[in-house]
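Journal club side-thread
Mid-discussion, someone asked how the predicted structure for our own chain would compare to the paper's figures. Pasting it here so we can look after the session.
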Amino acid sequence: MSDSQSRPPHPSHNASLRRDFLVRMWQAGIVISTAGTNSRPLLAADIVDSRKRAPAQKIALLVCCGSYPSGDSILPARKNGRDLEAALRRHGFEVEVENDLDLHRFTAAIERFRKHMAMLPNDGRSIGLVYFCGHGMQIDGRNYLLPAGIATNDPKARELSINLQEKLIAAFPQRYPGLGVAVIDACRTTNDTAGAFNYSTAPEGCIVAFSASAGQVALSPADPDKNSFYTQELVGALNDVDEETPITDIFELTRLRVEKTMTNHPAAIVRQLAQRPHMTTGQAGVFMLGRTRVLAASRNAEDDAYAKQAAALLPGDVKKSAEGFLKAYPNSRYNAQVRVALAGADDALQALSSPFVRLSVSAFQTTKGDELFMTDLRKALRGDKDAAERISLMYRNGHNGISQNLQRGEQWLRYSALLGNAIACYELYRSLAEKGDPDAEFFGPEAVRLGYRPPKGLCGARKSESC
């Protein structure tokens, strides 16, 4: 993770960032005190002004490659593109769909997208999304997307492919606040276990969502009239969102739906190879999709109950309030957000119960830290492994209003690792091994279990793997 992920935003963004943050908190019923600051209280006029702004500009590029040699074609690819296009247009995206691109056309499509992104206003509200359905491979710890017509066993496959990090993700501005989303549904119609993309982290201002965790195979039915498992649930999640929902919640909801669908599938091979989608987030602020409910006059008991649930901080309190809300309002419009919060709280409680974490409640009860720290604190306590890693970096470097505390930094890194951050596991393994700490024997194998494969230069020769 780059050091820039823990830096405060550029001063030119502060006013609009703070206003948008307060507006969102006001909508959720959370009162923000401005005592001791130079900011005036939030006025009703601020809410009106915010809602009179033009809608956020949102663009998407969908690359659907289904035609591959050696019987490896992905039959659902084009249906994936059609259905996802419709779902994104429902949320106001301008969408370009490209099918079966060769390397030249794939490269040109990414360049068009990059130029389009560069033209969007730098207002902290624009969203760019790139979706890829097709085959991919991992070589020496790096990830590649295969254009149509390229076999994974082609000796020139790497030269004929798109480097995920250096080409596709680099097309996003990578700044805070701002959002670029890369969705990688690298599927197979066969059931071999060759492996999947290497574990990676998203840069600043980006979200990267994979259809499967590192080391897993992504499955897809051999039927052009069906979606791949992941895209089916992503489209379903997008179509089910009727109110403002954080984009990260949509991908977490997709993960929960994929896991439920595959673990309950009638085919034994699907249950056996059930994939677990993986998302990694850079520091990107809070971006919403869905219609907006703004007027305080329209608030009811359900809105107030959700605001109370959203205000909970500690994982135990989040879990308790989420369970109570779902029991009281089983068909709520906030159902998706609350179910994601509940799942995240369960993950957080499980991680905090590990003897390898050693993070006490006192670590969460702090009045220090700037807005970015507090935002990441809330995310981390709801199971966000990447936010936990950023907090670790803040403590280790003494950034974001936090005094340097190396011990606390290591505790947060351990917490991030137990939430499933494979790179945090590997970093801990190396640092603990140098100190002779026996905990290194846990974090080393855990990094491997989570699918992290260091680049060849860091760990010696490794065999190339494809997904």
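Post-session note: The chain has two domains: 58-288, 361-457.
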